[in-house]
Structures are given as C-alpha cells and as structure tokens.
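Structure ticket #2291
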Amino acid sequence: MSDTEPTTASEELPELSFTEAMASLEEILERIEAEETDIDTLATELQRAAKLLDLCRGKIRKAEIEVTQIVQQLEEEG
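Resolution: structure written out below.
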C-alpha cells in the first residue's frame, strides 16, 4: 500500500505515535481540501480520520494523567 492510498474503514490502526497519527490526519485533510478524494472514498477517509482523532485524544489524556501524577509526586516529596 502506498502512502497516498487510503486505508479501508475496517482496517485497524497500527500502534502509531502521536506525531505519526497527526501526520496521517494532515494528509487526509490535504487530500480532502485538494479535492483528491472522490465521493466513493470520502466516507472511508473520514472514518480513518475519526479513528486517528480518537487515538490522538487517548494519547493526550494519558499524557495529562502521567504529568498530573508526576507533579503530585514532586509536590509530596518537596
């Protein structure tokens, strides 16, 4: 599969880093804005974008929790 070929909606996301997921989202957005995505694949692209957004949100929530825990530990030690 090439980098520009959209994935199918049923395809699960591999374990992507936040940066990789954001880059994929940007690529999808660029294709849609450039009208490179035809109507037949638009829904598939949007489904993949939704999965990527969920993945990014989850990574952000996890990072927020970890940072909060670290700050609490530092405050308890200080």
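Closing remark: The mean pLDDT is 86.
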